[in-house]
Amino acid sequence: MRGLLLFVLGALVGANATYFVMTRDAGPPTATRVGERIETPLPTQPATEAGVGAMGADPGSSPTGPMLPPPAVRATGVGPAPTDVPVASMPGAASSLLIPVQGISVAQLQDTFTDARSGGRVHDAIDIMAPAGTPVLAVADGTVEKLFDSKLGGTTLYQFNPQRTLAYYYAHLQAYAPGIAEQQALKRGQVIGYVGSSGNADPAAPHLHFAIFELGPEQQWWKGTAINPYPRLRGDAR
Length: 238
Hints:
Layout: H1 2-26, E1 32-34, E2 37-39, H2 71-76, E3 116-117, E4 121-122, E5 126-129, E6 135-137, E7 142-150, E8 154-160, E9 166-176, E10 185-186, E11 191-195, E12 207-214, E13 225-227, H3 229-234
Antiparallel strand pairs: 1-2, 3-4, 5-12, 6-11, 7-8, 7-10, 8-9, 9-11, 9-12, 12-13
């Protein structure tokens, strides 16, 4: 009889131990064991709109979860610094002037503003060398103020900017572009004439003589204070 009781008691103890081990190791179906602690993961966020799955969605973009700031803000407390806007792209910036001879790069420009000229004159302009017949372009929007033929400059064109504070002077032209007339509105990049050697220019070295004059209150096309075009065409002026 005693042996039977011991057998029954042993069977009960073994069954309880087996149950304990099985229930301890099983845990919730989606649980993850961390050390001796059982943690249940949070429900997976649903995909965002436009079919973006969990791999491509930012945690802060879920329409159902808490709206978190972008990663850069979460890491530093501030967003990324805004990109600086180049001065050249600002409306009215001097550096936005177009090089007035088609096909000429910034690297090909030479500063001849202070060069001496005949009769003790100072150049007050830059010469842009190019083959005869190369299109000459308006450096900016504006208006044709004067078409003029002079002994020194030959076939010339004076353009005023829209504010009528600056005059752009194009000289030694071979000819004007068809349809160019005084008081005509010009757009930046429009062909206004062609490189030549009219006036006192050397026929063996055709070029565009380009100048900028700051106008006075009287706004006279033949009178103004010369400004060096070189840094403005290079984008150096601010």
